[in-house]
Design brief:
This protein is α+β, with helices and mostly antiparallel strands. 30% of the residues lie in helices and 23% in strands. The chain has 3 domains: 115-177 and 188-268, Immunoglobulin-like (Sandwich), CATH 2.60.40.150; 281-359 and 367-508, C8orf32 fold (Roll), CATH 3.10.620; 529-664, CAP (Pathogenesis-related Protein p14a), CATH 3.40.33.10. It has 16 helices and 23 strands. A 7-stranded antiparallel β-sheet has the order 17-16-15-14-18-19-20, covered by helices on one side. Strands 2, 3, 4, 6 and 7 form a 5-stranded antiparallel β-sheet that branches. Strands 5-1-9-8 form a 4-stranded antiparallel β-sheet, with no helix packed on it. The relative contact order is 0.08.
Length: 667
């Protein structure tokens, strides 16, 4: 097992601090002194004290056993019950493909807190996969992966082959702790557990042979019925429904066992549990009803301001993947990425690497609109512009920016969403979530005379109907909704009509019963970028060699030239992240030195969001420039290819590839 140097230094420091706390050094010195004294007075005196003698002396005095006991990294609980302990591991990923050399950590189980053990014992009745074709020899067939989210803890199962009765056999240990320390972190009894209204969010993803993912189901599991089980556990069949337009169609059934560990002393009566669940449901329904009544009144007032307001894109509610209408403000929540993302621009780059795909429909007609919950979007790693914008806005809010989601149209008059941030001076900046680009907004004054030079907008947006985040909602009531002339001063009631923040807080606030699951934490990438880059580069070399062989050409690779392409790929990624490029002068100097006089150099860089070498090579050949390089003919032809994979959270990758060649020019 190989650990990075910073991890080794951190581990050494932890061990040193622990040994210092136990006063081990002085005890070892005393033991060594006593051993040497005993050696001098023994019959064998005069001989040197060996290492084995010292270790045996330490073992006899119990020092080694005590050190091992105190420094144990197993799942044994701490002896000090009052000391706060770490929660269970938030995410377990058993990726079968390339990943880092760091092994999966064991969950730190604290016996002073309750846990919910969710055991999936298999699936059945996935009728759509009744006649799943057998994969070709050596080919990986389509798979199912089950993702679980509960109170900020994320897990996922091992991929299993798609089948009518998929063999999903997994167990998930979910901590039921109350947030906080002291009394709030002590062992929760049955009554306290009944007050935890967070459901278990289960998302099933299908991955096909090409690596494309599809969202099959998004299910909220109510787990509190287990509190009334006499044996401490229940077995139940969970019927999974489809998503979007198929939300009323069953997808399959999972056999699930729920168990509370340790078992509560008190068992609640089923009537008590049912009463609590019904009470929560009625409270949710009442809040939603009151908000709907308020929204209707607010909309009538908005239409009275200006007759043309009815044609503007003012989005108050949106349907999630389960076809449930939810206030758009409930999709956004400040999200901090920990140490996974360092800057807002890096967050924008990360989100732009998540695949863009419109919600599909069966048959023709207008495109289906589906705003996925953040957990379903991250599990799928694919979504529409609304999903990208909501996640970007949440991350920018987490970075402390004044961010909003904008709903409007693009220059081609198609519906679109993007993100807006406001500076302290009121300057507006647009963030395009699909590309990571930023645009500064300077409103045009239509009353200025023609001689006054107006700023030329660079952004691809035509109109804006409303903006919102997790706390506020504003509808555009300016004379025109054209972005070029809009002012984004939300305190000006003549330009923007605001919803009541109290009304929004009643359905989207922190203290309300959740309309959906808590927002998930981001997970670090498990891929080793160096290993990924090397393997992908080797595959591309094989494909290029075979391609040239079919053309009757030989292939000679220049390893030194391939290495010299690395700074260019790093500069391209830096430019996409920060908007600035550096190192171009040094790259050009190195290439000039590597290309002899009388030779010609050609290069072609390209970026992909996937790691499929064959797909990437086919995409490169669509470019005439790349085709010319790969099929280069001439004297002393030398080819080069360099791959650089940049990893981001949630298994997102930016794959940069550069093909190059040098050859002697013949006139």
């Amino acid at each position: 097992m190989a650990l990075p140097p910073e991890k080794i230094s951190e581990l050494r420091q932890i061990i040193h601090n622990k040994l210092t706390q136990m006063d081990v050094h002085s005890r070892i010195r005393d033991a060594v002194s006593e051993t040497m004294e005993e050696s001098r007075v023994s019959e064998r005196g005069g001989g040197a004290v060996g290492e084995e003698q010292v270790l045996e002396s330490l073992r006899q005095r119990g020092i080694i056993d005590e050190i091992l006991s105190e420094m144990s990294f197993e799942e044994e609980p701490s002896r000090d019950v009052s000391r706060p302990t770490k929660p269970a591991t938030h995410f377990v990923d058993k990726e079968d493909r390339i990943k880092t050399s760091t092994p999966a950590k064991k969950a730190a189980i604290d016996p002073t807190r309750r846990h919910l053990y969710l055991q999936v014992k298999g699936g059945k009745a996935f009728l759509e996969h009744l006649q799943e074709p057998e994969p070709l020899p050596g080919q990986v067939g389509p798979t199912f992966t089950l993702h679980v989210l509960f109170r900020g803890q994320r897990f996922r199962s091992k991929p299993v082959p798609c089948a009518c009765d998929p063999d999903i056999q997994e167990g998930f240990l979910l901590e039921l702790h109350n947030k906080g320390s002291g009394e709030a972190a002590q062992m929760a009894d049955s009554t306290s557990l009944l007050s935890i209204c967070d459901p278990v969010h289960m998302v099933l993803i299908k991955t096909d042979v090409a690596g494309d993912t599809a969202l099959l189901t998004s299910h909220y599991l109510e787990w509190r019925h287990v509190l009334g089980a006499q044996d401490g556990y229940i077995n139940t069949a969970v019927e999974l429904m489809g998503v979007g337009t198929e939300s009323k169609v069953p997808v399959g059934v999972l056999d699930v066992r729920l168990e509370i560990l340790p078992h509560p002393v008190q068992t609640l009566a089923p009537d008590v549990i049912t009463t609590q669940l019904n009470l929560e449901q009625s409270r949710r329904a009442e809040r939603e009803r009151l908000f709907l009544v308020y929204a209707k009144q607010w909309w009538r007032e908005f239409l009275q301001i200006r007759g043309t307001n009815s044609s503007r894109l003012v989005k108050i509610f949106a349907q999630d993947e389960n076809a449930t209408n939810r206030p758009v403000c409930s999709f956004v929540r400040p999200l901090q990425a920990g140490r996974l993302l360092d800057t807002p621009r890096q967050a924008a780059r990360f989100i732009s690497l998540l695949t863009y795909e419109k919600a599909s429909t069966v048959g023709g007609g207008p495109r289906a609109e589906q705003w996925c919950t953040m957990h379903a979007f991250l599990c799928r790693n694919k979504g529409d512009c609304e999903d990208h914008s909501v996640l970007l806005c949440s991350l920018l809010l987490g970075f402390g920016l004044d961010a909003y989601v904008c709903v409007g149209t693009k220059t081609n008059n198609t519906a679109h969403t993007w993100v807006l941030t406001l500076g302290m001076d009121g300057e507006a900046t647009f963030w395009e979530s699909l590309t990571g680009h930023r645009y500064s907004h300077q409103p045009i004054n239509p009353d200025d005379p023609p001689t006054v030079e107006q700023p030329r907008p660079q952004y691809p947006y035509r109109s804006v109907g409303c903006v919102f985040n997790h706390q506020v909602f504003y509808a555009n009531s300016q004379p025109t909704d054209t972005v070029e002339v809009c002012h984004f001063n939300f305190t000006d009631e003549s330009r923007w009509k605001a919803m009541s923040e109290e009304a929004i807080k009643s359905v989207c606030g922190e203290g309300t019963l959740p309309l959906g699951p808590v927002f998930p934490p981001l997970c670090a990438s498990l891929f080793d970028p160096g290993l990924l880059s090397a393997d992908l580069e080797l595959e591309l070399r094989v494909l290029v060699t075979e391609h040239r062989k079919d053309l009757g050409l030989t292939t000679v690779w220049d390893n030194e030239l391939s290495y010299l392409l690395t700074p260019a790929l790093a500069a391209y990624e830096q430019e996409r992240t920060t908007g600035q490029i550096s190192g171009n002068e040094e790259f050009q100097q190195a290439i000039r030195r590597a290309v002899p006089d009388g030779h010609t150099f050609k290069g072609f860089p390209i970026q992909f969001l996937h790691r499929n070498a064959r797909r990437a090579f086919a995409g490169c050949l669509r470019s005439p420039v790349c085709e010319e390089i790969v099929s280069c003919r001439g004297d002393h032809v030398r080819l080069a290819v360099r791959v650089r994979v940049f990893t981001y959270p949630e298994q997102a990758c930016a794959v940069w590839i550069m093909f190059a060649c040098k050859y002697r020019s013949i006139l």
